[in-house]
Write the structure tokens for this entry.
Amino acid sequence: MAFGLIQWAEAQLAEIRDSGLYKKERVIDSPQGVEITLADGRRVLNFCANNYLGLASHPRVVAAAHHALERWGYGMASVRFICGTQTPHKALERAIADFLHCEDAILYAACFDANGGVFEPFFGPEDAIFSDELNHASLIDGIRLTKARRLVYRHCDVEDLEHKIIETGSVRFRAIVTDGVFSMDGDYAPLPELMRLAEQYDALLIVDDSHATGFVGPTGRGTPERFGILGAQRLLITGTLGKALGGAMGGFVAGAAPLIELLRQRSRPYLFSNSLSPVVAATAAEIFSWLADTTELRDRLEQNTRQFREGLSRAGFQIKPGDHPIVPIMLYDAVLTQEMAEALLEEGIYVVGFSYPVVPRGQARIRVQLSAAHTAEHIAQALAAFEKVGARLGVLAKF
Ligand SMILES: *Cc1c(COP(=O)(O)O)cnc(C)c1O
């Protein structure tokens, strides 16, 4: 059996390579940050990390982590309910809940686990879950783990959603599920309309704010703050500690106290998986208190995003409009996109091209992600490289 499986795996790999879908991993030989060293010794500027607030190797974060390591040790070697809960885990849950104006919050090893564990305790065959067609893979998997009716509505299409809610008829519970920000386009879910439908049809609204918590909204509380629905009782927020919030790892769900309490009793990735390292828990709690004190980092990120988006538009690139630090630069052609990403790396700018099946056919693009750690100088350097390479490849619009 094993022999056959190995042959099959080799054939699958060949097929992946032949179709140009093989994912190679570039090795970084320095801490994660804006200026990184690649394994071949090249120094480049990183424009493709989820390091939105520049905290992944920020001196203040590293110092907090050192302190936490000395004070609390390295690992927990236990699930939460046996002997895996320390003061920092409770402090972090409190900090997340307070930051997001929720009654309570619960930690997971990753947002993938949070999304994998947030549906099954609540929803069964008598319920219906409505999910945006572009939702993150972990939401799709989490919904699959339930026996609820699953209805996928067209991307951000409130009319299609309402139609599907009506069509489904009477059920016990309903949930509307969406990413707060969609990672390929940097576009926002229409939260006010989704909340209106949630109220009208008595549904829970679940928002995965992985690409928003810490920096979207006037004080960085994410898409619910941006759209004025923060603190709503029927809102459940899931998120990651692995992007803006230090970038180590960890996920959470925040919402009404009874829902969070039930997750502690029934959510399988919480019950049957190791506790977060106390180093991560204590450091993340410190990060939340920092973000609650000052909007300095999200303000700088906003400024950087504006500088980069305006510069690219001026140069004649076609970008998806918006204001999120995810900036999709549309090239449409998959081969051209790869060529452009490689040419930019030669110029010392590390970006990644995305093509089918990650994005729809004919929608190939370079996706840039800005960071608060980029300086105006870094961004000017990137813009100059984009302009030079763009002109050479003939992708700039002519005025
Ligand atoms: C990155 C991401 C996740 C996964 O988060 P991890 O903590 O890395 O598991 C989940 N949902 C969305 C929308 C994401 O962008």
